[in-house]
Amino acid sequence: MLLVRKSSTILMLVLLIFVLTSCKLDSTSDHLPITVDFDDATTGNYRQSNILADWPNAKMLWGKLDRVKYKLGLVPSYIQIKEIDGNKVLRVNYPANVYGPLVGTQWRSNFSKVDEAVLSYRIYIPIDFDFAQGGKLPGLAGGTANVGGQVPNGYDGWSARLMFNQNAEVAYYLYYPDQSTEFGEYHYWAIDSVRVHLPLGQWVTLTHYVKMNTPKHRNGRLVAWIDEVKVVSVDSIRFRDTCSLAIDQILFSTFYGGDSPDWAPQNETYLLFDDFSVNLPVWNADIGW
Fold first, then answer.
1. CB–CB of 278/138 below 8 Å?
2. Cα–Cα separations (whole angstroms), residue 263 to 5, 100, 142, 217
3. What is the C-alpha separation between 207 and 239, in angstroms, rounded?
4. With bands split at pLDDT 50, 70 and 90, how would you rate the model's confidence at 108?
């Protein structure tokens, strides 16, 4: 009888600890869904005013000097709205021999905190695209959206952008407390352990699913698809140690690098983006989240 009571007490303590350390999953959001399709945009340079108008609660990410130069028109706009076959898309231009964040191609778009979300967008990579050593693509983030060697501590922030490499392979590029390097950690997209390559010369849809972990537990989840083909599923990520940290932003970040000249492309090139969407997940047996 005493053994049964002890077992019941231990079980109650375990359940209490789980309740105290778990976060209530948000089933609604004040801001989601978010869609940005550029259909109503004016062709030409995609300026700061356009970004602030199209992306909810947008905040530009650049240094003070870059901002002054941009405002004074001393640097070109690297992003433009183009009309292609009757459809308006966002074109990001990457100059030759330039690496690191380019003016106007990094911003946050914040929304109310959720514990799981799906980001998708279409991307077109030209056949002659110069992959160089690799570069960043947009993703989801939370809190301070740690990047640039700022290793998260579980209470400040995290980020899950994408990154391509010199072989046209793509990976989640994570900043999270358990990362094994000072800079982001790669989780390559693969099918049956074979890394997938980004298709060239055609539009493809990249879909990312992120689910936050129970604080201080390694049970956060990442899933991704290229079009409708699942290419990664990870369920052991510790994004956070507190319920106050969640998913609360699109991190639009795309540039070459790395932090040294050997990351720069030798030739001027570009990428096209369209149909950005962030939403709460809906169970789909075929997709399997």
1. no
2. 63, 8, 27, 35
3. 19
4. very high
Largest Cα–Cα separation, the chain: 81
Structure tokens at 137: 């693509």
Instruction: Compute the distance between CA of residue 232 and CA of residue 210 in angstroms, rounded to an integer.
Output: 12
| Residue pLDDT, tens place only, 110-149 | 999 999 999 999 999 999 999 999 999 999 999 999 999 9
The per-residue DSSP string of 188-213 comes to E-EETTEEPB--SSSEEEEEEEEEPP
Task: State how far the Cα of 242 lies from the Cα of 154, in Å rounded to an integer.
Answer: 7
Alpha carbons 19 and 66: distance in angstroms, whole number: 47
For the chain, the straight-line distance linking the first and the last C-alpha, in angstroms and rounded, comes to: 43
95 close to 268: Cβ distance less than 8 angstroms: yes
> In Å, how far from its chain's centre is CA 118?
10
CA dihedral 198, 200, 205, 209 (to 10 degrees): 10
